[in-house]
Write a structure and sequence with these properties.
- There is one protein chain.
- With 340 residues, the chain is of the alpha/beta class.
- The chain folds into 2 domains: 134 residues, Nucleotidyltransferase, domain 5, CATH 3.30.420; 173 residues, ATPase, nucleotide binding domain (Nucleotidyltransferase, domain 5).
- The strands form 2 sheets. The protein has a 5-stranded mixed β-sheet with strand order 3-2-1-4-5, sandwiched between helices.
């Protein structure tokens, strides 16, 4: 039996978990920092300070809920990048401190790998290779995965990540941060065909990269024109139509690129990962379109799509089994999916 303590502190969530054998979640805990809401985005210094306050209680909570002692933990898995350097250093330093004091090994986990591998909790026997669509506030990438530590980026955003576009559009219409879940909910009451927004880089060239900055600008221009014309904020139905149309444009691009990549690579298994993977419209449309080429979509529950400690522990278990696990040495804020 293997017991791994996972620690995630790359951005604004202090998350911990205890996972047995990489598939059984004994306990999990996430503390999300509400302090950033009034700023409309993450304030790095505030984030790292809150991690300092939360990391010890977060570890204590999962150990207590899992009914295990620190001496029973076989390894401490910790996110070492990418992310905010101050936030990462809190988790890394905490894990190293426990390791030195108690003689427990540490395992350095790439945050992006953790998102892409968390599906192993509910699909442990899924065969490689797998195509991964990673969609979050900081990343939008299509990744071919031939193993837990063998990944190749097929396409990536050239500017804004999809999740970042959701948050910025939410700010344009005065939604709270983070705006992704709110847009998902409000868009259900809107018409996705109400506004014709651009779909960037969907030409027949077959390019697998993404671009969402133009879409974000188009939404901003639309909002400004409607407000100046009426001299008032958007009415609720007009706002919902705009959000539904924006979301449809994002989903349309993500789905078409993913289906193209799966077909081109000859892959019949596709993993949807990252915070935006919780979006209901994206899940529905991607599953339906993949079915047309005989491919299967693997999704995780919404609570495992956003940052969490479980994904870190699961990734570490996969690395142990593959013989690629390494101790954490330092924070790497710009760590890519795969090194050059």
């Amino acid at each position: 039996m293997s017991l791994i303590l996972g620690i995630e502190s790359s951005c604004d969530d202090t998350a911990t978990a205890v996972v047995e054998n990489g598939v059984r979640i004994l306990a999990t805990w996430t503390s999300t920092q509400a302090v950033h809401e009034k700023y409309g985005g993450i304030v790095p210094e505030l984030a790292s300070r809150d991690h300092l306050r939360q990391v010890l209680p977060a570890v204590r909570v999962v150990l207590e809920r899992a009914d295990v002692s620190l001496d029973e933990i076989d390894a401490i898995a910790v996110t070492h990048g990418p992310g905010l350097v101050g936030s990462l250093l809190v988790g890394v330093s905490f894990a190293q401190g426990i390791s030195l004091a108690r003689g427990i090994r540490t395992i350095a986990v790439n945050h992006l790998h953790a998102h892409l591998l968390v599906h192993r909790v509910h699909a442990p026997d899924l065969e490689w290779p797998v195509l991964g669509l990673l969609v979050s506030g900081g990343h939008t990438e299509l990744v071919r995965m031939d193993g837990p530590n063998s990944m190749r980026v097929l396409g990536a955003t050239r500017d804004d990540a999809a999740g970042e576009a959701f948050d910025k559009v939410g700010k344009l219409v005065d939604l709270a941060f983070p705006a992704g879940p709110i847009i998902d909910r409000l868009a259900r009451g809107g018409d996705p065909d109400a506004v014709s927004f651009p779909r960037a880089m969907l030409k027949p060239s077959g390019n697998l990269d993404f671009s969402f900055s133009g879409l974000k600008t188009a939404v901003a221009q639309h909002v400004r024109s409607r407000m100046s014309a009426g001299g008032r904020p958007l009415a609720e139905d007009e706002r919902n139509d705009l959000l539904a149309s924006f979301q449809e444009a994002v989903v349309d691009v993500l789905v078409k690129k993913t289906v193209l990549a799966a077909d081109r690579q000859g892959l019949s298994r596709v993993v949807l990962a990252g915070g935006v993977a919780a979006n209901t419209r994206l899940r529905t449309e991607l599953e339906a379109e993949l079915r047309t080429i005989g491919a299967r979509l693997i999704t995780s529950p919404p609570e495992l799509c956003t940052d969490n400690g479980t994904m870190v522990a699961v990734a570490a278990e996969q690395m142990i089994r593959a013989g690629t696990a390494e101790p954490v040495r330092n924070a790497e804020p710009n760590l890519p999916v795969c090194r050059p």
